Amino acid sequence: MNKRELLRTGAFACAAFALAGAGQAQDFPPKKPVTMVVGFAPGGAADAAARLIAKKLGDNIGQSVVVDNKAGAGGNIAHQLVANGPADGSMILLGSIGPLTIAPHMMKVGYDPFKDLAPLSGGVNFPNVLVVNANSGIKSVADFVALARKEAGSVTFASTGPGSASHLTGELFAQQAKVEMTHVPYKGGSAAMPDLLAGRFTAYFAAPPTALPHIESGKLTPLATTGLARPAYMPNVPTVAESGYPGFEALNWYAFVASAKTPAPLLDRWNQEIVKVLNDASIREQLLKHGLTPQPTTRAELGDFIRKESAKWGAIVRDRKITGE
């Protein structure tokens, strides 16, 4: 074999090796268990949605999908983990409004939502519900605002962390109601709720799955929901917009993303599988029972949505001069 033939043979071998490597990199489902990372502690809205969806995804793809709760920093830790994580499709993230569209405007984070994370599909959305301890004596938004004005700065509200949706919803409310409230960050809804039930802070813009059991038991009083329309599961609770603040809207949402280094065919396949699960009648029914509205999208639709939300909440961060705590 002459030199030219050797070179040609080597080139073919390299090309074949590269193609084989690309094929292996794009194996679906991945050959190892899939990790679905969640940025909050077990027991909250994100965790409830993740576990329902992960189970069905695993059944559909024939591979285990394990929920991994990485609480802390309002979900930023989980987002950085996935941004720097494996790019073989074995790790996906149920991302959230805070780390994807709010926190980057407030503080230095270890990832760029638009460069380091790739959109897969929308997940779920829901309004928060402003709740207080039933023993507080507060019965309405008007009562709450009156207290905040009477005792400036003494009214406290919890959140799932600096830059989270519950934090910014409280800031938006304070802006529109022209009151001052003290922010008390937690590592998730399941961590905040026991302290609200114990009366350790005044109020919480809570996710419905976290608040509904305690509303139904009579331990919490719901004052208002934060969407433009009343949700079907709380038809007798007014919206903030109906309570004297027209146009007030602050929806919470979770969406699926992965490392931006992941090959496009794998990202597209995850989109197909997630959309399939979110459109499944039994999954939709279970999510709706938790107060979570399924929001399947294309990858492009999710990317556009995240950019619009980033612009909206970035303006609030600047106006309220909010920084990481």
From TrEMBL:
Q: Name one Pfam family in it.
A: TctC
Q: Which SUPFAM superfamilies match?
A: Periplasmic binding protein-like II
Q: Where is the signal peptide?
A: 1-25
Q: Which family does it belong to?
A: Belongs to the UPF0065 (bug) family.
Name the source's superkingdom: Bacteria
Q: What residue intervals traverse the membrane?
A: none
> Which protein is depicted?
Tripartite tricarboxylate transporter substrate binding protein
Keyword Signal found: yes
Keywords, alphabetical: Signal
